[in-house]
Design brief:
Elements lengths: L1 H16 L14 E4 L3 E7 L15 E10 L5 E11 L7 E7 L9 E9 L4 E11 L6 E11 L1
Antiparallel strand pairs: 1-2, 2-3, 3-6, 4-5, 4-7, 7-8
Length: 151
């Protein structure tokens, strides 16, 4: 009887101390948004009308959309938008996409309908480069800002 009580007690203690839920290192907080004095970046679900060929693949990647809006000084010109994924225990950042002013005429507001993001990614880094006229009004000055979406 004493052995049975000890067994039940140890079983109850071990079962309550063992972790029940485990979570993968994915960006679960997406959709989310970050903003600064100049920009607002919103990562959301992919546009359903444009994801017919870009549907998420479970345990491989998810598809998201990105909206960037100028909320500060209105006299700015977007020069470049870059997105990178960062994986745990990996030093390089993997480029998802880059949009240059030379490729498209970028406006102060930008929308990317869908982009895949690996489920292994622990962070999403968005880098925005823009110009605005300097105080003397002659030469544009270049600025850069980084937004980091973490788990």
């Amino acid at each position: 009887m004493k052995k049975l009580k000890m067994f039940l007690l140890s079983f109850v203690l071990l079962s309550t101390m063992a972790p029940i839920n485990t979570f993968a290192a994915t960006l679960e907080k997406i959709p989310s948004s970050l903003s600064s004095k100049q920009w607002s970046v919103v990562i959301g679900k992919a546009d359903s009308s444009e994801t017919k060929n870009n549907k998420s693949k479970p345990n491989v990647f998810n598809v998201y959309s990105m909206d960037i809006k100028s909320i500060g000084n209105e006299d700015v010109n977007l020069v470049r938008i870059e997105a990178y994924r960062v994986e745990p225990n990996s030093s390089p950042e993997y480029e998802l996409f880059t949009i240059d002013q030379g490729m498209n005429k970028l406006q102060p507001n930008f929308h990317h309908a869908n982009f895949p993001l690996s489920v292994k990614a622990s962070k999403l880094k968005v880098v925005i480069t823009w110009t605005k006229k300097s105080d003397n009004g002659k030469y544009p000055r270049k600025y850069r800002e980084q937004f980091l979406f973490e788990q």
